[in-house]
Amino acid sequence: MGKRRWILWQGMIAPSMERFVAARTENGCQLSGLILQAHQDEPYVVRYSIDVDDDWRTRAVEVEVENDGQHRITLAADGAGHWSRDGEPLPAVENCLDVDLEWSPSTNTLPIRRLGPAIGQTNAVAAAWVRFPSLEVQRLDQSYERLDERRYRYRSGRFTADLAVDEEGIVLQYGVNWKAIAISGELR
User: Fold this and answer.
1) Domain count of the fold of the chain
2) Per the confidence metrics, is the pTM higher than 0.70?
3) Which residues of 65-83 are buried (b: 16+ CB within 10 A; e: fewer)?
4) pLDDT, tens digit, 9 for 90 and up, residues 80-106
């Protein structure tokens, strides 16, 4: 315990910033963040916490969106593709192993770390996609192609973005959407 990585991302398209922390825990890792985002000319604050196990499978997610009040959800996953939202089964995301937070580059790290693909390999995955600001949760089919040691191509539907990662698989550049502007600590 005690290993941490901090990143400050700047949004390149929408006015936004995200402070991200990845910290080792006894059972895996906890990812947490604070997002400041302008969406349709309204300011939002998003706070999140994601617990993953040693194999980088999502186990617990807490998200709070603040604008005209505070709205929260809690997701639980068993690591085998079964999810619940606020204690109720969530069949729409059955068989998803990862969570994907709509406004954050942080969750792209989950399948990258979990799968560890070889250069040239492409992996298709499905994620429980948490939409912002609505907090709707839906299935999102996506793929990750490893281009070289530290670059991946992310695809979902017609959307494509090249991702640059650090030596720990944490996203530093997300296409033209996000880029890391400050980094400290180590997670290993």
Assistant:
1) 1
2) yes
3) beeeeeeebebbbeeeeeb
4) 999 999 889 999 999 999 999 999 999
